[in-house]
Amino acid sequence: VEWEKELVLEATTGLSYRVAPGWSVGGEARYASVYPDWTEGLHREAYAVFAGPNVHYAGKRFWATATYLPQLFGSPSPGRSLHLDEFEKREIRVILGYNF
Question: Which pTM does this prediction carry?
Fold first, then answer.
């Protein structure tokens, strides 16, 4: 059995504006970085920056957020400005919640 020691750090932020009762629209940004064999020191192997729009709905007990995040740029790869070895070109995320 071979184990891989890899650390992925991410930071996400966003802003939204309420456009109607229960509905908000906004933008979100995410930075992600990969540190292989982090037990030997934090030497970043790859990174990517994503940003895009989001839509949020909140009812009395249920809420949902949908976000579309294309990769804007990443650590240099030969002939590319995106890092597609470790990260996706586009991400679609849906987060669901129920308050009880």
Answer: 0.83
